[in-house]
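Per reviewer request, we include the raw input and output of the structure prediction for the construct analysed in the revised manuscript.
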Amino acid sequence: MHSRNENLKKRWNAVLEKASQKRIAAEQALLDSSAFDEAILELESWIDSELAKNASAEANVHGDVDTVKSLIDEHKKRETERTSKQRGLDTVMSKAAKLSSKDSDENSHIKTVCGRVTDKWKLLEEQAHARSAALEDAAKQAADFDKKVHEILDWLVETEGKLAVSGSDFALALSRVEDIKTELHNNRDRRDNCLEAGREIQAKCHPRAEQPMKHWLRVVENRWRVS
């Protein structure tokens, strides 16, 4: 009798243990699912915020060297943050795969949420790559314009220095003036190319670059005029 009771007790305890394990597993699955939802919704909220920033951001990124450099620095900061979020995305997607294998009831919900977030992430990446390419082009044009401006200004300073002759040597002074007029005429294309490059940038520049671009174009025009 005692032996039979012990066997029944063991079998009952085994049933209770199995039921307890199932309950714990169910509770853990619920916790995991809840944690997953919280994590992926937080990530989706961040992605939505970044997409909203892109939608309201100024599309034009061209301008002078300093402005373009500033825009590139701002873009790099956002890219650094996006890289850190990429690790979070990978973790969440890995968690989603594990949850899907454990709970078939959650599969549809998990696939829907993951698909939506993945599509938004791809769009965010595409926009980031497009802005990177635009900034790269802007940097090249800004550097080219900056080089042209300073070459013109340096050449004008050098040319004006040739006028420094003795005040009593009027013949030499007159000859120098004529030579400089000829040089100015021969280099007019350089000036025009510089101004054309600047105006091309100005027509599509970022709002913060409007005043700097006006300044450099005015400097070139005025310095050429007084030479």
